[in-house]
């Protein structure tokens, strides 16, 4: 995947190897479901602060000018290893939106939300994008 024509890219792949034969079949299956980001050239990873599961890269941040329930939040183009909750309509500072809360697929903590629909024309750029709250994230070099 090429970002901003700078030829920075990352590939998303499933971890399918394990070296410890003590790992149970259920744990192995869970590990194989999670996606791990490998960055070429190395980019900063964004992970859950609770369990360190890979969520995105800093290159995927569209804007840092958002506000979440816990303070500063970032708008991301893509994220991985999250599960979406049910759709609901919310009145936000920029108008009415249909959103889904997103949870870490490993620790189940709420990380932010996904914009499904924006009712204001000027806000439609958010559709399909993700908000992750800074306080719930960790940057990894």
From TrEMBL:
It comes from the Eukaryota. InterPro entries: Yippee, Yippee/Mis18/Cereblon, Yippee_fam. The keyword Zinc-finger does not apply. One of its GO terms (molecular function) is metal ion binding. Keywords: Metal-binding, Zinc. Pfam families: Yippee-Mis18. Residues 44-141 form the Yippee domain. Belongs to the yippee family. PANTHER family: PROTEIN YIPPEE-LIKE CG15309-RELATED. This is Protein yippee-like.
């Amino acid at each position: 995947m090429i970002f901003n024509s700078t030829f920075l890219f990352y590939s998303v792949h499933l971890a399918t190897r394990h070296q410890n034969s003590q790992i149970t079949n259920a744990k192995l299956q869970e590990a194989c479901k999670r996606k791990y980001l490998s960055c070429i050239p190395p980019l900063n990873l964004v992970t859950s602060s609770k369990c360190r599961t890979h969520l995105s890269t800093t290159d995927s941040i569209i804007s840092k000018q958002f506000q979440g329930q816990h303070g500063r939040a970032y708008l991301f183009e893509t994220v991985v290893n999250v599960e979406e909750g049910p759709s609901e309509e919310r009145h936000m500072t920029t108008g009415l939106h249909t959103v889904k809360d997103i949870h870490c697929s490993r620790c189940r903590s709420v990380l932010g939300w996904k914009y499904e629909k924006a009712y204001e024309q000027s806000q439609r750029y958010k559709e399909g994008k993700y908000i992750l709250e800074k306080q719930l994230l960790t940057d990894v070099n």
